[in-house]
Amino acid sequence: MSIPVVCDECGADFQVKDELAGKKLRCKHCSAVMQVPSGEDDWDLAADEDEELPPTVRPKKSKTKSRRSSSSSGMPVPIIIAVVCLVLMIGFTLLNMLGNSAIGAGQPNAAAVRAGAMMGDIVRLLIQIVVTVGVVRGSRGTRIPAMVLAVLFCIVIGLAGLVTASRDPNGMFILLALGFAVIVRIIFIACLAVSADYFED
Q1: Among 53, 153, 154, 185, which is least packed by CB within 10 angstroms?
Q2: Is residue 25 exposed (0-12), middle (13-18) or buried (19+ Cβ within 10 Å)?
Q3: Where along the chain do the CATH 2.20.28 domains lie?
Q4: For range 47-64, the mean pLDDT
């Protein structure tokens, strides 16, 4: 048989062995002292105040590694690689902005085409800078949007690259450059995918 015991502090109820009747125990939930009924309605806690109680055993808190302790610079290696990829992306965008002056050469609407390309590059550059800051800070809201944008860019740049390469005499060079840009973004996506703990608040 067992004896029902209810903690006066937290209300948790337990079933204890008969041989513990009349003894004092500590509640497993709140560590309050409670006495097991002895069957003689002996609930006088003051009588045994001098009795030594067993020490409270508290569960050990698991020590989690800090998210920024995996390298000498304070960032995990995948995050460092992701930041390097972002720096390369920013470099690609800046080079593309410099090359926009040659877009549409000889065409009647060349200025409008160059302006549109420049605006697209500026927007992309601003997004890349914001993402870089978010990744370095470990902002939780940065990870998923950055991965989605990188995937979309890979799809768009892949399709655009195929179209451009088929019409341009330097098509092979364009394909290699765009392929490298896509590979950098795939590495970036993979690094963020394995670094979910880094972005937890």
Answers
A1: 53
A2: middle
A3: 2-48
A4: 53
